[in-house]
Design goal:
The protein is α+β, with helices and mostly antiparallel strands. It has nine helices and nine strands.
C-alpha cells in the first residue's frame, strides 16, 4: 500500500499542476511562436501509402437529430452486441471528433468540429478495427485534412491486444472499433510552451464528449477509458513515446436496450456496499 505521506505529496503535486496556469506567472517566458520559430505541421503526414477516402454522405445516416434527446441518451456503455457498424457510421464518428471544417490563414490553424486552445488540435486519431463493414480488421490512422483513413497493419489476436492495451478491461474486447488518441506535444508547445500540458487535458475532454454525442445520435455506445498502458498503445501504432504518445481511448460498439441489467452489473458494488 502506498504510504500516506507519499500519496498526499502526489495529490498535492497534481493539484498544483491543475492550478499552475492561473496561479503561476513567469514574466520572462516566451513561447516558440513569440520567438518566431517555425510552426510544426498542422497534422501528421500519412504513415503508409494505403490511404483511402471515407464516405461523407452523412445525410443518409439514420440518427437522432434532436439535441435534447441526444444529450438525454448520452451515457457510458460497456456492453456491446458485436453487430458490425457501417463505414459511413465510422466516417461520421471520425469527422465528429476531429473533422476539419476550414483552415485559418495559409496554414496557421485548422478549425475543427471540436474546440481546442489556440486551435492547436494537438491530437492524432488511431483505431483498432474489429467489426466495421468493408474494413479489414487491424490498426488504422485517420487523415483529417483529406478525410481519409489509412491501413497501418494487421494485429494478431485483436481482442487480447485491446484488453492488454486497456490494462485488462476485457469488456472492451467486444467493441467494433476502439479509438486511441495520441498527443503530439510540440504542436501545442509551440504556442503555449510550459502551459501547453494543462490545456491539452481540457482539449481531450472535448474529443470524448463529441464522440459520446455522435454515438448517442447514431444509437451506438462508447465509454471513455483513461486507464490504459501507454507503452503498449504506443507500440501498436508505432509511436515514439516522446514526441507522440497515447493520451486517451474510447471503445465503440453496437448496443441493445435489453442489456440494461448487464450494464448495471458494473456498478453492483454500489448496492453491495450501500453507497
Amino acid at each position: 500500500m502506498l504510504r500516506p505521506d507519499i500519496q498526499k505529496r502526489l495529490i498535492d503535486e497534481g493539484r498544483r499542476f491543475l492550478k499552475s496556469f492561473v496561479t503561476t506567472s513567469y514574466d520572462d517566458f516566451e513561447s516558440d511562436q513569440q520567438l518566431k520559430l517555425p510552426q510544426p505541421p498542422l497534422v501528421k503526414a500519412a504513415m503508409t501509402e494505403r490511404a483511402f477516402p471515407l464516405p461523407r454522405n452523412f445525410e443518409d445516416l439514420e440518427m437522432i437529430d434532436d439535441l435534447v434527446s441526444i444529450l438525454t441518451e448520452r451515457k457510458s456503455s460497456r456492453v456491446y452486441t458485436q453487430q458490425s457498424i457501417s463505414l459511413l457510421q465510422l466516417s461520421f464518428l471520425l469527422w465528429a471528433t476531429q473533422g476539419i471544417k476550414d483552415i485559418r490563414g495559409k496554414s496557421y490553424a485548422t478549425l475543427r468540429t471540436v474546440p481546442s486552445g489556440g486551435a492547436r488540435h494537438a491530437f492524432e486519431t488511431y483505431l483498432l478495427v474489429q467489426n466495421v463493414e468493408g474494413l479489414q480488421p487491424g490498426a488504422y490512422h485517420y487523415l483529417p485534412l483529406d478525410h481519409q483513413l489509412e491501413f497501418l497493419h494487421s494485429v494478431e489476436d485483436l481482442p487480447e491486444t485491446i484488453t492488454r492495451s486497456l490494462v485488462g478491461q476485457s469488456w472492451a474486447a467486444k467493441a467494433d472499433v476502439t479509438f486511441y488518441w495520441s498527443f503530439v506535444p510540440y504542436r501545442a508547445e509551440w504556442r503555449y510552451g510550459i502551459w501547453a500540458h494543462r490545456v491539452v487535458l481540457i482539449d481531450a475532454g472535448h474529443l470524448a464528449q463529441n464522440l459520446y454525442l455522435a454515438c448517442s445520435a447514431l444509437g451506438l455506445g462508447t465509454c471513455a477509458v483513461a486507464a490504459f498502458d501507454v507503452e503498449v498503445c504506443d507500440r501498436i501504432f508505432g509511436l515514439d513515446g516522446e514526441e507522440e504518445f497515447t493520451i486517451y481511448t474510447c471503445p465503440v460498439g453496437t448496443i441493445s436496450k435489453t442489456d440494461v441489467r448487464a450494464e448495471k452489473a458494473f456498478y453492483q458494488f454500489v448496492e453491495d456496499e450501500g453507497l
